[in-house]
Amino acid sequence: MRDTENYLDSAAGLSQRSSTLNLRVRKRFDSLSAFELEVSASVNPGIAIVFGPSGAGKTTLLECIAGLLTPNSGRISIADRLLFDSERKVDVDVRCRKIGYVFQDLALFPHLTVKKNIEYGIRNLPKSVREQKVEAIADSFRIGALANRKPAKISGGERQRVALARAIVTDPWVLLLDEPLAALDQRTKNKIIDDLRAWNSVNRIPVLYVTHSREEVFALGERVLLLEAGRIIAEGTPNDVMPRS
Amino acid sequence: MDWQSLWLTTRLASLVAAILFVIALPIAYWITYSRWRLKFLAEAVVALPIVLPPTVLGFYLLVALGPRSPLGHLWQSLTGHSLAFTFQGLVIGSVIYSLPFAVQPFAASFAAVDSRLIAASATLGASKLRTFFEIILPLSVSGIVAGVVLAFAHTLGEFGVVLMIGGNIPGVTRTVSIEIYDQVQALDYSSAGVTALVLLAISFGLLSLLYALNRKLLAVWLWK
Q1: Largest CB tally within 10 Å, which of A90, A128, A149, A173?
Q2: What is the ipTM of this complex?
Q3: CA atoms of B15 and B13, how far apart (whole Å)
Q4: Domain A2-110+172-240 of CATH type 3.40.50.300
């Protein structure tokens, strides 16, 4: 019991940390259509939108930060943690980066229940802590009643919530969301956006949210990075940088 | 019908399927996920028993298991008898002969697992071993079942390799297919017909079970 209390205290401390994601990334794909991503940015705690057309390099950028792709050169750090540095030959393994990632197609494990999906990333914690955390996150994303169902047996909006809960429950240092609401109707999108904003107002970590929906940019973004052909061409508030349409 | 040869064949096929289940998993995993440039050479070696005449494979195995080979010599010094023309030799030969029938369905089912699930598992901090046992393996269950059943069924009906490395020793290396051959040689067509029918029924039953089980397994696994 004492372990549980200690863990929750330290987890609360972690969730209140304030850290900036600094990145300078160059990734080149020679074998494809010679695409090159070259991005430098600092992302403060809060939700930053990466907006751009298909093929702009949005997912590539997220995959470089997560460690799923290795940049050709650059440096990625979060607070004082160095994740990647081509000059110093540092490349922290994806498993150790503590970065939450919600994939475009969600990538929920189809053979595991909602509960098992959510607790997958915190299996190393004591059982009582694990259950407490899963229950708390499931309640805050209003999916507590679905605990024993498989992903195929829940709606699209519920699956999005499960994917968010699964990434967030690990207390990540950075949260990467790759068009997580793309396939949803506006009403469901708004509800999930409200939940995400509420969560982020308490847990101030850098969140990079990839989208090509203008509505999501204005609903969520405190800051927008406008990405085109692998380069950031503008950054600022949605009102400042969003192209008029 | 010689029940002794049927029992020996069943024992051999079960043992080979069990051994292949264990050794074909890492081989299939490596074939699926390795980025080694010369991987195709290893794939070709694993697939060789499919295209090689059983007598050719049997000949090489006979040489490799004989007392003059390092393996055969080591075996003889440890056990006091040769590997050739023994049940143990038959098991080793059958494992090699049926290897592609287990490795290929395993590898195909591993390759069919969505790479995003493997990436998701990694971002959640899971080791490669944990990802294999908790994500890849459960989602490959139909390919695993197929590989094990095919390895069993293939061993059940093997003839050329058995004859080359096992000979025809009743109770030791005389399998059902060798028995059918013997019966035909002796012009005992009625006995050969019965034995062949038993082998046909077992093979048909196994394959039917495989297809039925795979549908059921997938349904329960993903949708329940």
Answers
A1: A173
A2: 0.87
A3: 5
A4: yes
